[in-house]
Design goal:
Chain lengths: 119, 876
Amino acid sequence: MAKHSDDQRLELLQGTLDMLILRTLQWGSQHGHGIGQAIRAQSDELLKVETGSLYPALHRLVKRGWLKAEWGVSEANQRAKYYQLTAAGKAQLSRERDRWSQLVDAIGRIMNPAAAGEE
Amino acid sequence: MAPDIDDLDDEIRGHLAISIKQRIERGEDPSAARLAALKEFGNVTLTRDSIRRVWRHRWIDAAEALGRDIRFAVRSLLRVKGLAATVIVTLALGIGANAAIFSVVRGVLLRPLVNRDEDRLIYIRQSGPGIGAQNMTFSVPEVKDLRSRVRTLSAVGEFSTVDFTLIGLGGDPRVVKAGVVDGSFFDVMGLRPVLGRLVTMQDDGPKAAGVAVLTYRFWSISLDSDPSVVGRTIRLGPRTATVIGVLEPSVPYPADTEIIANVVTSPHHLSATMETNRSHRMTELFGRLAPGTSIDAARAELSTVHAAIMREHPESYASKANVQVTVSKLRDQIASPARTILIVLLAAAAVVFVIACSNVANLILARSVRREGELAVRAALGAGTGALRRTLLAESLVLCAAGAMLGLLLARPFVAAVASYAGRFSIRALDVTVDSSVLWVGAALAIAAAVVLAYVPRLPSPHAPAGLGLATGVRITPGTNRRLRLFATTQIALSFVLLAGAGMLLATLVAMQTANTGVDMRRVLAFDVPTSASGAGMGDPKVINFYQETARRIGQLPGVDQVALSMLVPWRDRFGPGIGFGVDGYTPANGEENPRARFRVVSPSYFAVLGLPLIEGRDFTDADRRGSELVAIVSQSLAQRLFPNGDALNRHMWWIDDYFGRVVVPRRIVGIVADLDDENIVQGPAMAVYQPVQQIGVVGRVLVHAAGDPYSLVPAVRRVVREMSADQPVERAATLEDVRAELLSPDRLNAFVFSGFAGIALLIAVVGVAGVLAFSVSARTREFGIRLAVGSAPRHVLGRVLGEGAVIAAIGVAAGAVGGYLLAEVSTRFFADARLPGAVPVLGSTAVLIAAAVAASLMPAARASRVDVLQALRSE
């Protein structure tokens, strides 16, 4: 079932969960369970989002106005709350994407100076 | 919007359902799938709570954190009970005094009156600043003119005060102060009856029946709120009146009277003098602004109309009097006498509050230095600046809230004391009570203090080497030391201002109390035996005979040395300003005004009763009667000023004033008597002209010189008068000593209240200085240990600490003197009678403060000189 054992799984860096949620919703609306599964699947099971973190994060993003939520019926014929990016959420996603690539770049230079020099 | 509980539960249920369904689709057993899904989800309750927390307002989080901090603060303050108690009591004094004074200020100056539409109600006053007449009132012809010409007022009401002898409401015949009003008065004032009806237009005119309204205070206090008084007939002097109603509780203005009657009850109001003499003024005027007009419009119109009236009747308005009319809202008019005193009190209370705060700041600062170690540890463990600040804020909030609560408890008796004090200046102060505004003021002051105090201590700097702060022991940085001393100096400086002010008032009081009047104050007993009772006119021979016979019979009573009659009791009764007169042999220089003298009417032996020596000539005798030669006795300073060569005797003088008509009536000066300033307790030169009772006929006061205890004569004197006339009131028996005491009571109260404030301030300042030095000594144990170890004598150490206390006090006094001087300079711009204290109060306050500071430093100094050398050196 799981491709990785628990100790191989990666802890999410603080603050990155919001960005991942926004990214997951980029192409359409999804409910909480679906978002969690998508993050896990797209990271090849390396990242597992705890529901205890996922739902507060979703609500936080709604509160900030980056997501909006409405009730719908899931593929399993269940009533579920669907989350969707707002315009402000899209703008936030692109900001976070920029910030993330800068951070990766900067950390990469430190961790791997030679590689950075070759570029 | 935040989702509700059901919404969250639905969402979580949906999540689980999807998860279970997917597992079942992958082939898991339904019950295993369910368990796995629940296990994967984790703690449902916890998740739900954290979602809800997302939606919670951040203020709630902050409040929760503050709650934790406050519990922590209470625990940590309980460990330093002494300090906490000092802080709380100090703050309570400051907050209590302020809350009390504020509620009195609000009640007296800001609260609306009960009168209907009270902000449309105005008071109109005629004054003559040129002759020192602050309130000339109006005459009937003036009121008629104003009524017919003024358009900005919808109605005008008249009120005048007269004395009636009241018979018929229980008790002895009494002279009562009564208001006489026209029919529009109550309508203009917007007052309602609580019982019966009030005086209306139908009660106007000389043909109406006499009616009287009782004021609420009189009815409820003297008559036990007896409803059956309405309809009763009472006697007011020679006339009768029916009680028609009781007025609702309201501020009595311009006079606190027991009854208010219509015009017909007062014979004087129907006389020709009253009706036609433009200069015969005794009516107060009130007006109601017409709809749509402002008070400014009314003011402008009234002064234009008044100016026109003055031009039409120049003979009634002396140009030097500079007669003018002023208009003010009734509420402001009632408040005005109390305004200055209340503002001064408010300022004094604010100063006490500042002193209290700076003292508390000192204590808190000292405490925070002691706990620098604790703060450093907490900072090292990751507490941010905000969290540390919050801890400090919580502590000061706890302290200030406790102080405020205690202060509000104190405020109740404070309010009672201040209100009865302010009641002497404004009648409205009497019904001031502690209300919710006190709570708001208390809370606001407490919060202000708490915020300030939380920012007093410095937090451990993140850049400072942590080791130093973590080390045990207390070190005072020069900055902290400076701040401690600054606060202590502030307290001394402000206390000095209050002490010097209180000292000034005390000095004035002492000067007045010890002033020598030249009169045997203790042995002279004065009675009011008013003439108004008989209703007979001035100079009626029957009246004079009555008084002469009364005096003769009183003189025969055992224990009576001598008896005299007079028109007024010295220091108690007033007879307006001096009156102009002429005298042969003295011509005023060109442009100079006629000399003025006090108009006095006395019987023979008046001077003997008071103990005033005759300098020259003779006293009046019974032969100085109506029909014989008109005579006068003048005071010494009058004789000396007008006749420096000492030839005043036997010259003739005459009054020059409208009051006496235009006829010159010369009187021969038969005597010169020592000065008696019967208007001021501190004696000044007094120009006075005395005339015999029998020739003028104005009388009404009896003065008795007693051989023994004066008050034991009161029943006998009253009996003698009653035997002569059963309806004759005999009132206000008092020795001149007690008359003076009564006169001084406002000064005594002023001195008392300000001394109270100064005392509180001094106490707080002493605690402050002692606290600073005690702290400084305990922090310098090592220094003193070294000093003693290298051979300093203990008394040098002692002197050094005492010196520090004296230096703080000296700097404080100097700062206070400079500040106080500037303050006095500024306040003279706002208060005409502000003045600087003399040398004695200033030097006295300085001495008191320095002595207090030195006394306060004694204990810390003694401790410094007894430091155990070995222990001190080993302690670090």
